[in-house]
Design a protein that fits this description.
The strands form 2 sheets. A 9-stranded mixed β-sheet has the order 14-13-12-11-7-10-9-8-15. Strands 3-2-1-4-5-6 form a 6-stranded parallel β-sheet, sandwiched between helices. It is of the alpha/beta class. The chain contains 11 helices and 15 strands. It starts with a strand and ends with a strand.
Length: about 350
């Protein structure tokens, strides 16, 4: 089958680190054009790709079938709307949109144009998360009773001159990292009955939320997610406890760092973690006590675009449906309401 020609809407961090390297090595895609509004960096890295100055130049190119919208969060709805109206398939960076209503409008528009619309939830293909899924699917912990996910950073300053530090709806750590962590929880456990949260600005002078403690309320499992910009010594990334045992996993999936180093997913041992980063399983299986390391499944961000290709060319079902991302947005909005009120917010 023919390659899918792609237009990349921005060449900032996500364009340079994630989308361009993954798409450039993928056999199903060709990047035709990348938008650079003022800089001239594309040609030095990808001489075969055209650099253009405006988003509209992507829309006017009849060869481009797929547009990746990795621009500032506030532009997602506007650009996705234009791209779908132009008959393009669309991948949007998270958060999908700033409101549920905007997301519903885009889903309806994609249906009208029979276009593929998806959100780049690449962390479903983190190796540690894939390993957690395997442990739960195999019921190695018995009945799961507690699940805690932590994503910590140390950034004790306000980065100047970036939209990511400006107060606006849809900006902040709850939308940035929370979109990934909540998506992972919903993949594992479905929609919760209610949510409780404490969301705050902890850094001096911060205009955005840079801390959260979110509880997703289910009838038979305790689910907690935490993130902060002021954690210099990290604890476990995941902690799972069940009726038969526990699983603890330290460290962050290596793919982002590998991409930053100029490596790409076609290289040998892509996404593999060293043994020192493997998680610890302490449990009982078939009456036998087991304690030891569990090899982390190799992460694979390319699998997201494998599915996008199959959805466009073979009409395969999407792995990341936009409706699922609306569920995540609903939880984030409810978490913010809970933080303001101090009460559980029902999600019925």
């Amino acid at each position: 089958m023919s390659k899918i020609h792609v237009g990349l809407a921005s060449f900032g961090m996500s364009g340079k680190v994630f989308h361009a390297p993954i798409l450039a090595q993928h056999t199903g895609f060709t990047i035709s054009k990348i938008v650079e509004r003022s800089k001239n960096e594309v040609k030095s890295i990808y001489p075969e790709i055209d650099s253009v100055r405006s988003f509209d130049e992507l829309l006017k190119d009849d060869n481009i079938e797929l547009i990746v919208i990795n621009t500032p969060d506030s532009t997602h709805y506007e650009y996705a709307f234009k791209a779908l109206r132009a008959g393009k398939h669309v991948v949007v960076e998270k958060p999908f949109t700033r409101t549920i209503k905007q997301g519903e409008e885009l889903i309806n528009l994609a249906d009208q144009h029979k276009a593929v619309l998806s959100v780049f939830q690449n962390r479903r293909w983190d190796g540690d998360f894939l390993t957690v899924r395997k442990i739960l699917e195999n019921e190695w912990l018995g009945r799961l009773v507690e699940f805690e996910s932590n994503y910590m950073r140390y950034r004790n300053f306000i980065q100047p001159g970036t939209w990511k530090e400006s107060a606006a709806q849809g900006i902040g750590i709850s939308y940035n990292l929370g979109s990934h962590m909540i998506d992972q929880a919903v993949v594992l456990f479905g929609m919760p009955e209610a949510v409780w949260a404490d969301i705050d600005n902890m850094r001096s002078g911060s205009e955005i939320d840079d801390y959260y403690h979110i509880k997703l309320i289910y009838p038979d499992i305790k689910v907690v997610m935490k993130s902060s910009y002021l954690v210099r010594e990290e604890g476990p990334r995941y902690m799972l406890h069940g009726t038969n045992g526990s699983f603890l996993k330290f460290g962050i999936d290596p793919q982002e760092e590998m991409l930053k180093q100029g490596l790409n997913p076609s290289m040998p041992d892509w996404g593999k973690e060293p043994e020192s980063q493997w998680g610890i399983l302490n449990t009982e299986i078939n009456g036998m006590h087991i304690r030891g390391k569990v090899e982390t499944i190799a992460g694979n961000y390319s699998a997201y675009y494998d599915n996008i290709y199959d959805a466009i060319r073979k009409r395969a079902e999407l792995e990341v449906l936009p409706e699922q991302t609306l569920d995540v947005l609903h939880i984030i909005e409810s978490a913010k309401e809970s933080s303001r009120s101090g009460h559980n917010i029902e999600l019925g």
